[in-house]
Each structure stands twice: as C-alpha cells, then as structure tokens.
C-alpha cells in the first residue's frame, strides 16, 4: 500500500477502507509515514469529510493504538461525561460528585487547558496536594470505595490522537467533524466507561460555531458509540458567553463548591442538573427525568454531594480544609472592580475573548509548557440580559501582577450593550438521546 494513494483517494472524495485506515494509523504511530503526507490527508479529510463507517473505523484504529482501560473490576455501571470545551466550564467538578452521591460510579479522566479554554486538571490542582496521576489499580480501587475519581489521562492512552492532534493544531485541520469525533470518542472509549454523556458546545467560545454544527458533531459521536455498543447521549449547549460567573482555576473550584451547596449560578446549576439527570437515567439509577432531578436536588440539600467531593479530595491527597473552607484556596494579591462606562442591557458577552483575557492574567497557558497561576481570573458580575447602570461593577478581576497592556480596553470590548430589553440566551438547545 502507498500512502500517496490514500491521499489521492480522499482528494477524489472516495471513502477509505478499514485496511487503509489501519495502514494510516499504525504507520503514523510507528513513525513510518511522515507528517507532510499525513497533513495532506488531514486536509483532504477536512474538505471532503468521511462517512459514518469510515469515521467509526478511524476511531477504532485510534482507540487500539494504545492501552484500553478495563474497568470491569468496578461493580455497577460506570458513567463518564465529556465537554467539548469552553470558557468557565467547571462542570465535571460539580457534576461528578453530584451523580456519584446518587450512587453512580464515575471513573473520570480529564485534561489540561490550552489557549482560551480551561482544563479540569488545572482547576482541581488549585487544591493543595491534589494528585491527578494515579496507577490503574489506585484509580479502580478509589472508584470502588467512594464511587468517584478524577485523574489525568495516562500517556499510553490513544497515542495516535496525541500525534494527530498536535499535527492538526498546526495544519488548520482541527475543525473537522470526523476528526474531532474520532479524536474525542477514541479517548472516551479507551477510558472504559459503559455510558458517556457528551456536552457539545457551540458559539464563539467553542469548536462549533452554530447549534446545527454542534448537533452534527454530536450525531457523529453517537454513531461511533453505537458502533461500539455504548450508550452515548448528548446535550447541545450555548458557549457564546462563559458558563457560570467564574473564569480561572481556584475561582472555578469555589464556584463548583458553591454549586454543590445549592448556591451556584443559575445557568451552571441548570446545566449540572440537566446533565446529571441524563447520566442517572443512563446508569439506571433514575427511572425518569423527574426522579433524577429529585435525587440530584436531594444530594445538594442534604450535603451528600459536597461530601463526595471532600471524599475524592481526601482520597487523592488534597487539602480537605480548602474544600470545607473555600476561602483557604489560593487567593490573588489584588481584586480589581471593573465598573461599567456604559448603561443598558447586556446583549452579548464574548466568551472567547474573556477566556483569552483570563489566560493573559496567568489562568491559562499559551503553550503546553506554561505554568498556570491558580489564584487569578475573572468573576463576572453582569451577564447577558442584565441591566447595567454606569458605574455598576461588571466584573471582579483577581490579579497577582499589574494588568497587561490594553487588557482593560480589551475587557470592555467583551461587553456589548443595547437599550432594548433582551432575553437571556437559552443555555441548552437540544438533547440528543
Ligand atoms: N477535543 C479533542 O479531544 N479532540 C478534538 O479534536 C477536539 C476537541
């Protein structure tokens, strides 16, 4: 087989066979096929797509390029969730303890942030001592003991995706539905859970710009799930503005804790309850949506959801006192109040730009090797639909260094005002079951 023939075929809009996809992935991981040829194939896929069968085969080849986690030693149905990423997205930190407190087994592998999107591992590491690297044995025994573990993806999981993602990042081929779907699903399938809930985001802070495109991506991932006999469902949610109010690692942990105490922002709480309901139904713990919600609200009210987070932090060597007393989490040296120079209703709040501004304060990384500052970030005080008077506080900016040049001007640009009353944007646009 010659790789150039695969490129030619995809260029001519023809589907690739299972054998050709096997040749591609094994050859690339072994280092036999050079980046320049794979780049050409990725660009051909970007323009000409892949059918459902090809996408499933590609996922299968990627999945078996490394270790596949065997969770069969954990009793009960194991559930997982995945968000396609966004700004202020601390969902795993609240949702996982909530569903675990209802009896679900959550064996969760998460990632780090890059660019304008944050990563769950960076957030949870704001808690002193918290260990994200665990052996498979520790991971499994923790989920058996307390129903919940949150760890980093092991280096041997889906090596094909590590190589391909790095290449896509520098060849403008990230935004392709079959490539995103196979990348995400190969990792989710390798992580071994029985059920998967996908939170597919759309909007300017997300990979997919429109809800229709997000739906298309969700359907591609659900089809891959069916190919592997997994129960995969998806939420389609809006990422045109940040989720919740906090953007930045320790600030998001605080907001996640508040949400577990029933004091979280309305939009974020709504997303956790909706996602949690689907997960409880997927695992058979709840018979219907109403019953699922009741169980989730109960574990918030009786403190069991927060207890689960505390148990996980204790099991992973983190400082439990910081969860019980969030004021002990890393604090920035200074908190600036940014007041409005305009008045009117907030019509838009640019998520992508706010994520980038938080990153520039030190909350995220520009390149993989950058350190993150757990304490810094932005806490929004006004969001879409709110009325703002001149001088009202728009946001609290937590800093450890003077603001970078133009930062404040750029921040003001993220708010768009109108004099007409505006409705709050709908957060959840669709649920694909
Ligand atoms: N997240 C992934 O893991 N892969 C993609 O391709 C896009 C988002």
Quick synopsis:
By secondary structure, the chain is an alpha/beta fold. The chain has helices at 3-11, 18-30, 35-48, 52-63, 91-101, 120-124, 136-146, 159-169, 177-190, 211-227, 249-260, 266-282, 289-301, 304-315, 320-324, 351-363, 407-413; strands at 78-83, 105-110, 148-152, 195-202, 231-238, 246-247, 334-339, 344-349, 377-380, 387-388, 393-399, 415-418, 428-432. The chain folds into three domains: 1-48, Up-down Bundle (Transferase, Pyrimidine Nucleoside Phosphorylase, Chain A, domain 3); 76-322, Nucleoside phosphorylase/phosphoribosyltransferase catalytic domain (Pyrimidine Nucleoside Phosphorylase, Chain A, domain 2); 330-416, Aldehyde Oxidoreductase, domain 3.
Could you describe the 3D structure shown?
It is an enzyme of class 2 (transferase). Pfam families: Glycos_trans_3N (PF02885), Glycos_transf_3 (PF00591), PYNP_C (PF07831). With 433 residues, the protein is of the alpha/beta class. It has 3 domains: 1-48, Up-down Bundle (Transferase, Pyrimidine Nucleoside Phosphorylase, Chain A, domain 3); 76-322, Pyrimidine Nucleoside Phosphorylase, Chain A, domain 2 (3-Layer(aba) Sandwich); 330-416, Aldehyde Oxidoreductase, domain 3 (Alpha-Beta Complex). Helices cover 45% and strands 16% of the residues. The chain is built from 17 helices and 13 strands. The strands form 3 sheets. A 6-stranded mixed sheet has the order 3-2-1-4-5-13, sandwiched between helices. Strands 6-9-11-7 form a 4-stranded antiparallel sheet. Helix 5 links the parallel strand 1 (78-83) and strand 2 (105-110). It starts with a helix and ends with a strand. The mean pLDDT is 96. The protein binds uracil. Uracil binds next to helix 9.
């Amino acid at each position: 087989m010659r790789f150039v023939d695969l490129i030619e075929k995809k260029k001519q809009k023809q589907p690739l066979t299972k054998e050709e996809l096997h040749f591609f992935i094994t050859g690339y991981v072994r280092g036999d096929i050079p980046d320049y040829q794979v780049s050409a194939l990725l660009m051909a896929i970007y323009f000409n797509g892949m059918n459902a069968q090809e996408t499933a085969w590609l996922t299968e080849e990627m999945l078996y390029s490394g270790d596949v986690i065997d969770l069969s030693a954990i009793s009960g149905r194991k559930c997982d969730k995945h968000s396609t990423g966004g700004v202020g997205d601390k969902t795993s930190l609240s949702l996982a303890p909530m569903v675990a407190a209802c009896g679900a087994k959550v064996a969760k592998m998460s990632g780090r942030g890059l660019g304008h999107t944050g990563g769950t591992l960076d957030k949870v590491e704001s808690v002193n001592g918290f260990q994200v690297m665990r052996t498979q044995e520790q991971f499994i025994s923790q989920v058996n003991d307390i129903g919940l573990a949150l760890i980093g993806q092991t280096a041997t999981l889906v090596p094909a995706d590590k190589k391909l993602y790095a290449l896509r990042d520098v060849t403008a081929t990230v935004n392709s539905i079959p490539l995103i779907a196979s990348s995400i699903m190969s990792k989710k399938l390798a992580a071994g859970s029985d059920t998967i809930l996908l939170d597919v985001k759309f909007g300017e802070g997300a990979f997919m710009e429109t809800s229709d495109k997000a739906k298309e991506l969700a359907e591609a991932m659900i089809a891959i799930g069916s190919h592997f006999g997994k129960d995969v469902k998806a939420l389609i949610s809006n990422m045109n503005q940040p989720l919740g109010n906090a953007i930045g690692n320790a600030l998001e942990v605080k907001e996640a804790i508040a949400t577990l105490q029933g004091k979280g922002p309305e939009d974020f709480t709504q997303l956790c309850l909706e996602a949690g309901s689907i997960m409880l139904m997927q695992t058979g713990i709840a018979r219907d949506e109403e019953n699922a919600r009741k169980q989730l609200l109960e574990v918030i009210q009786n403190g069991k959801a927060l207890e689960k987070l505390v148990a996980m932090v204790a099991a992973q060597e983190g400082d439990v006192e910081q969860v019980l007393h969030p004021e002990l989490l890393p604090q920035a040296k200074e908190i600036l109040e940014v007041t409005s120079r305009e008045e009117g209703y907030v019509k838009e709040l640019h998520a992508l730009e706010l994520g980038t501004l938080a990153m520039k304060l030190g909350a995220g990384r520009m390149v993989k090797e950058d350190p993150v500052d757990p304490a810094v970030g932005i806490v929004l005080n006004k969001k879409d639909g709110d009325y703002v008077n001149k001088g009202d506080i728009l946001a609290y900016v937590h800093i450890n260094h003077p603001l970078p040049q133009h930062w404040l001007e750029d921040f003001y640009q993220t708010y768009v005002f109108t004099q007409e009353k505006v409705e709050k944007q709908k957060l959840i646009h669709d649920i694909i079951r």
